[in-house]
Amino acid sequence: MKPTTIDEFHAAQSSDDRAICDALRSTIDRGLSHAESKIWHGHPVWFLNGNPIVGYSKLKDCVRLMFWSGADFDEPKLKPGTGKFKDASIRYSDAGQVDENDLLRWLGKSMDIQWDYKNIYKRKGRLERLV
Predict the structure, then answer these.
(1) Which domain holds residue 88?
(2) Which DSSP category does 3 fall into?
(3) Pairing status of strand 43-48 against strand 36-40
(4) Domain count of the chain?
(5) More confident site: 29 or 121
(6) Which three-class secondary structure state does DSSP give residue 67?
(7) Tens digit of each residue's pLDDT (9 = 90 or more) over 56-93
């Protein structure tokens, strides 16, 4: 059964992965207190004005934290995705790897550097910079 809430997503994880997810959620909720958060395509995602900003997912051997516009953050720990999008991510296999200072800095950048993913379908796959 697919989770319908972030709490359900966390509950479905192993204790080690749940600790990673809890650390990420706590810091993201503090850093983006005005954002909307929900399960989107099966994963916890935070939105600003309907635009996806940050989210995480469970992969086979880790939890991946992804910033939709992270490729433009100029942060060496965030690895750019492949393809035409502006995403970047980091993978965690232990909650101790989550650096709160890094995460808060990235969240700050996520408010200042945004590509318009909300309207990507209207623009037939073309991204435009918002801020």
Answers:
(1) 6-112
(2) -
(3) antiparallel
(4) 1
(5) 29
(6) strand
(7) 999 999 999 999 999 999 999 999 997 778 899 999 99
The dihedrals phi and psi of 28, each to the nearest 5 degrees, come to: -65, -45
Structure tokens at 49: 């004005």
Percent of the chain with pLDDT over 70: 87
- pLDDT of 20 strictly over 80: yes
Determine the pLDDT at residue 130.
67
| CA dist 97 → 88, 106, 117 (Å) | 17, 15, 29
Long-range contacts formed by 54-63: CB under 8 A, 24+ apart: 54/28, 54/106, 54/107, 54/110, 56/21, 56/24, 58/13, 58/17, 59/91, 61/93, 62/91, 62/92, 62/93, 63/13, 63/17, 63/20, 63/21, 63/24, 63/91, 63/92, 63/93
Is residue 99 situated within a structural domain? yes
Amino acid at 57: S
- Name the DSSP letter for residue 97: G
Three-state secondary structure call for residue 124: coil
- CATH assignment of the domain containing 47: 3.90.1150.200
How many CA atoms within 13 Å lie on the side-chain side of 41? 7
